[in-house]
Amino acid sequence: MSKRKALEVRTRVAQEAARIMSEHGVRDFRLAKEKAASHIGIADRRQMPRNTEIESALRDYQNLFSGTGRVRHLRRLREACLEAMHALRDFQPRLVGPVLSGLADEHSPVLLHVFWDSQEEVELFLQARGIATELLEKRLRLPSGRHGYYPAYRSEVGGVWHQALVFPQNGLREAPRSPLDGEPMKRADIRQVRSLLNPETSSDPESACIVPMLARIRLLSPRSLVKQGQSGYGVRQADTLVRLIVVPLMAADTAPDPGQWCGPCGRIKVFTERGLSCL
């Protein structure tokens, strides 16, 4: 198989895995890859994309199909997270997972790491505040490469699901490995979460932008562009219509058309909120 064909296969699997994760709430990258490969009919497992490739495809998928509703939902989750972190401040809470990365959807709980040497004291703290919890056990890979099991309290507060994983206090020094890339998990404290909710101080694009970022889709020809409403366009690839929402800078007629074809990069040029861009 040529390198170009292999890249196309990896991209197709990554995109299908991203769709499965977004639409069906699948959180396991390996399972999503297997389901995607089976659905597409890819038998060669050597062509499977890396988890980071699926994460990138998932971000593009959400930006294309979820729109501003996802941005609002992400903000709601982060606001709920900040409230929970203030309540749990004695346990030095840290936010992890999709709510931190910006990839949260309607299936995503707020994932917190809390640090206390007594699991029972954390449970009593929650009970004293009338919070009903379900005790779970989570398996995580440690910096040493070994795996450890940690108690996690699952609860629903204000219509938002939370999970608080309890680590010993010295667990604050080293984060467990991320299932995404094997690197230490990214953690955010209260100050950093607060900055995500403040567009003026945050560098996080998901919290600052009004419209979803435009995913870059290479069009095979200008004829593959299909009008979808006043300011929406679709891209037909492999007989599948992929919806693409474009919010133009001035008027709908500035959205892509065959006359705005960019020769150097082979993509459609559009005017968006961020200026002239190539899809």
Descriptive report:
The chain has 279 residues and is α+β, with helices and mostly antiparallel strands. It has three domains: 3-65; 68-208, 2-Layer Sandwich (Beta Polymerase, domain 2), CATH 3.30.460.10; 222-278, no CATH class. It has helices at residues 3-24, 29-40, 51-65, 67-87, 98-101, 119-128, 190-196, 205-208; strands spanning 94-96, 110-115, 134-141, 147-157, 160-167, 225-227, 232-237, 240-245, 261-262, 267-272, 275-278. The strands form three sheets. It has a five-stranded mixed β-sheet. Strands 6-7-8 form a three-stranded antiparallel β-sheet, with no helix packed on it. A three-stranded antiparallel β-sheet has the order 9-10-11, with no helix packed on it. The protein is globular, with a radius of gyration of 21 Å. The model is unreliable at 201-277 (pLDDT under 50).
Characteristic terms for this protein:
five-stranded mixed sheet; three-stranded antiparallel sheet; 3 domains; 279 residues; 11 strands; disordered C terminus; Beta Polymerase, domain 2; alpha+beta; 8 helices; globular
SSE topology string:
HHHHEHEHEEEHHEEEEEE
Q: Count of DSSP E strands?
A: 11
What's the name of the CATH homologous superfamily of the largest domain?
Answer: Beta Polymerase, domain 2
Architecture per CATH nomenclature, i.e. the level-2 architecture of the largest domain: 2-Layer Sandwich
Mean pLDDT: 77
